[in-house]
Design brief:
heterodimer; B: mainly alpha; about 0% strand
């Protein structure tokens, strides 16, 4: 999928990817690729600035974790992030329904 | 080049492209990500050098990673600066209350009302939204080379401050009189300098990608 289309929805996708359980950047990207069946195959390096931005906005929290000899930065959703996710899902539902209606009617 | 060398070279390229920007955490995350990605590719049967090349390709060009991270660093730095400026507005408002008390209790002069107005404008400059004038001044300041930018802003502010002190000292009776007359203007000059300095703050990746 074209990067600019995906970029507009990246926050929603990233928050969704870590909402059930905390994950490191690689696992987040892997989850997005798997759940979208390969459609969301974004340049992996562009995800980290977005994760940092969400953390700065208080929607994600992160900490270093040592697991099986590998040091990883683990991201989790904050309460504020959960509230933002609910709102973004509602916005997405309205937006996607509207686009679908327009596309289907023409 | 071996697999660890390829990863180190990639991380070094991002570091160089970012210039002086603080990025220790990002670089550590990139390294860990690439190691994990290479291990995953090797599990799928790729040779070590092929796995590393594939991992780097999926991560994207270092210049693009640096560009996007520089945008995030700029936004974060400007947010911190905005918080600091808002905190600095509080003493300026308190100072204006002091002048108001002087006006009400001691001497009812138009000049004191003007000084109160200047202090309130200074507070507004610190907390108010960005203006076209501020952005224009900031873009002018950004044309000055990085290493001279701080000195230029300080020099202009100091020059204006000295001019203000000289004006206040013209027919002053004492040092305290000079200070009382000049403090509001000095606050306004300082506020403007801080605001323009804050707006000119940008983390720009090196255009040549650090090469």
């Amino acid at each position: 999928m074209r990067g600019e289309i995906l970029k507009g929805h990246l926050d929603l996708l990233l928050l969704t990817a870590v909402q059930t359980r905390p994950a490191h950047g690689y696992a987040v990207i892997d989850a997005l690729r798997m759940l979208s069946q390969g459609t969301f195959d974004l340049p992996e390096g562009t995800v980290y600035p977005a994760l940092h931005r969400l953390e700065r906005g208080g929607l994600l929290a992160s900490c270093w974790s040592d697991q099986s000899g590998r040091r990883r930065r683990i991201y989790s959703v904050t309460d504020r992030g959960r509230a933002a996710l609910v709102q973004q899902r509602q916005d997405w539902a309205v937006f996607s329904n509207a686009v679908q209606s327009v596309v289907a009617a023409t | 080049m071996s697999e660890p060398d390829l990863i180190s070279a990639y991380v070094a390229a991002v570091r160089q492209a970012l210039g002086a920007a603080p990025a220790a955490r990002l670089l550590a995350e990139i390294r860990e990500h690439l190691l994990e990605s290479v291990a995953s590719e090797r599990e799928r049967g790729l040779a070590p050098d092929e796995a590393a090349a594939r991992a780097l390709e999926r991560f994207g060009p270092p210049e693009e990673v640096a560009r996007q991270y520089a945008e995030e660093l700029t936004a974060a730095a400007q947010e911190r600066r905005a918080r600091t400026l808002r905190a600095m507005a509080a003493p300026v408002v308190l100072l204006s209350l002091y002048y108001l008390r002087f006006f009400l209790a001691v001497r009812q002069e138009t000049s004191t009302l003007l000084q109160i107005g200047i202090l309130l404008v200074a507070a507004l400059v610190l907390v108010g939204p960005a203006t076209q004038v501020g952005d224009s001044a900031a873009s002018l300041l950004r044309r000055v080379p990085d290493r001279l930018r701080g000195w230029t802003a300080t020099g202009v502010a100091a020059g204006l401050g000295m001019a203000c002190l000289a004006w206040a000292d013209r027919d002053s009776h004492s040092v305290s009189d000079t200070l009382t007359r000049s403090v509001p203007m000095l606050c306004l000059i300082g506020s403007l300098a801080l605001r323009v300095g804050s707006a000119s703050l940008r983390w720009a990746p090196r255009p040549d990608g650090g090469r």
